[in-house]
């Protein structure tokens, strides 16, 4: 049995593959500006830092020039489009649902710390039928500072009434890793999403979430 009483999870790339829906919503805003159409596999590389940074990083990678007004308009368009249809093409990674259910059945508290907006996070979880598995889920705009700032992760832990030393964070990117290090909590990485690219010890790599029952 695990030594932890709770686990907090990142969402995109850790529990769900949301890149197709994110790309679709981005493309609505990009099309209005005459910018290139984005493929999901391209968008996936830039996920993790929240919507504003996502758009900036993609535009910089493409060499597209923009001003602050255009950026804000594109961001607003993206968020409206994504909220309207946040899970039409999103899938839960294999075995994630059953493994989360196993953790919950074992009496382990579950939370989510994600750089998605809070409203979109709630809607995605509801549409995928995952809401009831989590005690707390806090999006980036529900906290004073978002990942990689550890205060985001610690805010989720506080809302769950977790005790230091009794919980760990699970993610798939260096951003998640930085948040865990900053919060001084153990970190485990999944083998999908951006997980294979994270530099970490073998004992912190999961083959699936059910492994958490034995850490």
UniProtKB/TrEMBL annotation:
It comes from the Bacteria. Gene3D superfamilies: HAD superfamily/HAD-like, Putative phosphatase, domain 2. Pfam families: HAD_2. GO terms for molecular function: phosphoglycolate phosphatase activity. It catalyses: 2-phosphoglycolate + H2O = glycolate + phosphate. Its EC number is 3.1.3.18. GO terms for cellular component: cytosol. InterPro entries: HAD-like_hydrolase_sf (IPR050155), HAD-like_sf (IPR036412), HAD-SF_hydro_IA (IPR006439), HAD_2 (IPR041492), HAD_sf (IPR023214), PGP-like_dom2 (IPR023198). SUPFAM superfamilies: HAD-like. GO terms for biological process: DNA repair. Coiled coil: none annotated. Pathway: Organic acid metabolism; glycolate biosynthesis; glycolate from 2-phosphoglycolate: step 1/1. It is an enzyme of class 3 (hydrolase). Belongs to the HAD-like hydrolase superfamily. CbbY/CbbZ/Gph/YieH family. This is phosphoglycolate phosphatase.
């Amino acid at each position: 049995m695990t030594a932890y009483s709770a686990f907090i999870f990142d969402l995109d790339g850790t529990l769900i593959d949301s890149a197709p829906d994110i790309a679709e919503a981005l493309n609505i805003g990009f099309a209005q500006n005459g910018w290139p159409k984005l493929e999901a596999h391209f968008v996936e590389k830039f996920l993790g830092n929240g919507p504003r940074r996502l758009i900036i990083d993609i535009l910089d990678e493409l060499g597209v020039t923009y001003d602050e007004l255009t950026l804000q308009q594109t961001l607003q368009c993206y968020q409206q489009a994504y909220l309207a249809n946040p899970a039409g093409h999103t899938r839960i990674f294999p075995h994630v649902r059953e493994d989360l259910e196993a953790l919950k059945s074992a009496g382990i508290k579950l939370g989510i710390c994600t750089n998605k907006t809070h409203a979109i996070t709630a809607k995605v979880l509801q549409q995928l039928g995952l809401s009831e598995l989590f005690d707390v889920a806090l999006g980036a705009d529900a906290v004073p500072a978002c990942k990689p700032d550890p205060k985001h992760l610690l805010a989720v832990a506080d809302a769950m009434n977790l005790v230091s030393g009794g919980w760990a964070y699970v993610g798939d990117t260096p951003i998640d890793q930085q948040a865990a290090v900053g919060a001084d909590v153990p970190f485990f990485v999944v083998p999908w999403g951006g997980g294979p690219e994270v530099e970490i010890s073998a004992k912190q790599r999961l083959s699936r979430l059910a492994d958490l029952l034995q850490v």
